[in-house]
Amino acid sequence: MFDFDSIHDRQAWSSTKWVRYQDRDVIPLWIADMDFPVAPAIREALTAYAQHANFGYRSVPRDLPQLLVDDHRRRYGWAVDPRWIVWLPGLVLGLNLAVKACTAPGERVISFSPVYPPFLQAPALQGRQLVDVPLRPTNAAGTVHAIDFDLLEEAVRPAAGADGSVPPATRLLLLCHPHNPIGRVFTRDELERLAAFCERHDLLVCSDEVHCDLILDGQTAHHPFARVMAERSPELLARTITLHGPGKTYNVAGLGIAWAIIPDAMLRRRFRAAMQKLVPDPCACSYSALQAVFTSGESWRQALLAQLRANRDRVSAALERMGLAHSHPEVTYLTWIDARALAAEVGNAAAWFEQHGVGLSDGAEFGRPGYLRLNFAAPRALLDEALQRMENAIAAHRQAAPHASGEPA
Ligand SMILES: Cc1ncc(COP(=O)(O)O)c(C=O)c1O
Fold this sequence. Notes:
Blueprint (H helix, E strand, L loop, with lengths): L15 H4 L7 E2 L11 H13 L11 H13 L8 E4 L2 H12 L5 E4 L6 H8 L3 E4 L3 E2 L7 E2 L2 H8 L13 E7 L11 H13 L3 E5 L16 H8 L7 E5 L13 E4 L3 H11 L8 H13 L1 H25 L2 E2 L7 E5 L1 H7 L2 H7 L2 E2 L1 E2 L8 E5 L4 H21 L9
Parallel strand pairs: 1-13, 3-4, 3-7, 7-8, 8-9
Antiparallel strand pairs: 2-10, 5-6, 9-10, 11-12, 12-15, 14-15
Helix pairs in contact: 2-10, 3-10, 4-5, 4-9, 7-8, 11-14
């Protein structure tokens, strides 16, 4: 019913994913951008907007906040007040604004690595200190991760300086929920523990939930962290900023629309003040795309999830054959691969696969050198060709070095 198979020339339109390898025969499976045509409902909405043929300033359409509110109630059982919404042209921007609004210069901000790079970069970019609390591997292969609550307790209270000076306060936790790149949906229990931790240590939380509509089994519920906080105690809602948008689920990151949900009026004012007239409105056409997402996007999303489940399983089977330990993501279209053994033999594994015709993300950017992230949101033929190239490269390498590590027994 929907097209997930045709391969389009995206270089012709300067797709960021594709122009990186403009003059090379490299299949790009790196940045979180899908190689599927957009949902027909979005295409129609954009066409109608283009035909209207006036591209002057555009305000938020009157129906849009209520569509968002209805969507959040239906999908996540969360009653959002439309006054809490701050429209944004992107989410990385929202993370940086949250750091500015929630902390003073020099204060400490917690992130859980490995994580999408802006979670590690935003504190320093805004003159704050990053407190990296590594996620704890919970399986022997090191490809399933959980929050390490013991480490978190230690990290939140820094030791006093040698001269007895008081360390800066830890004020904010940046949560990637669900988590990119480990592909996990945190359990209700983990979220409740985290909410208790935030309450105990007086922390504000910025929860980026942009991947939450890509839970692959279609049954596991997404629990907005703000709702979990509010269920613990209504006043805890005031400590939350939730970031979300259609960019990942509907592959419209290039249209530039997202939002922050900030229930507390004072925090919302601080967030808006941090915008300081430096942040533009979302792109005029993006409002039409978002209306289409809310009113007519669901059947395409369901079809997408089926396609992604099948692609994930193909990737897992191929990585098994290659002897590379990997995540089996519960959410989104990114597989996290432990290529440390391979890297010990070939050097940087991302660069090595690039030389063999496949462009993956380098785990170093996420805080884990030796790991790779593979984006499997691609038409089957393209994905199969990329996986075949990877398998061929590994087979040739093993033939040349038969005792190479990682070889399946
Ligand atoms: C968790 C997360 N947040 C934000 C973004 C990017 O959002 P934007 O393009 O709206 O800045 C991504 C992109 O992959 C992401 O994975």
